[in-house]
Design goal:
Blueprint: E1 9-10, E2 13-14, H1 15-27, E3 35-36, E4 39-44, E5 47-57, E6 60-72, H2 87-108
Antiparallel strand pairs: 1-2, 3-5, 4-5, 5-6
């Protein structure tokens, strides 16, 4: 019979895994060289659709559990169809998500 291991999660962050990743990257800093990618397809007018599904990191190609699609457009006040958030709004979403994740992780580590 094996003993169950307790995983400490603080703010929903797996603290042990975070600390282990930090230690591993300190020993092999080349693993921290990430290349993020997205593809974009023009739909019509100012409407486009971007897809994210893979990236390079930890020394090799990685994949998300599933692909993510993002429709971008401009609002009707700019004579567009408003099929999605504007590209600038996506930048703001990215910054807000990065700050939120950083705050949750820093409090744990």
């Amino acid at each position: 019979m094996t003993q169950a291991t307790q995983t400490r999660a603080d703010n929903g962050v797996n603290v042990q895994a975070l600390l282990e990743a930090k230690a591993a990257l300190a020993q092999a800093p080349e693993g921290a060289r990430f290349k993020w990618r997205a593809t974009s397809e023009w739909i019509n007018g100012t409407h486009s659709r971007s897809t994210v599904d893979g990236f390079f990191g930890l020394g090799g190609e990685q994949r998300h559990r599933r692909s993510f699609e993002f429709d971008a457009d401009h609002p009707e006040v700019f004579a567009s169809a408003d099929n999605g958030a504007t590209p600038v709004e996506y930048v703001l979403v990215g910054l807000a998500g990065c700050l939120s994740a950083g705050i949750a992780s820093v409090r744990c580590a």
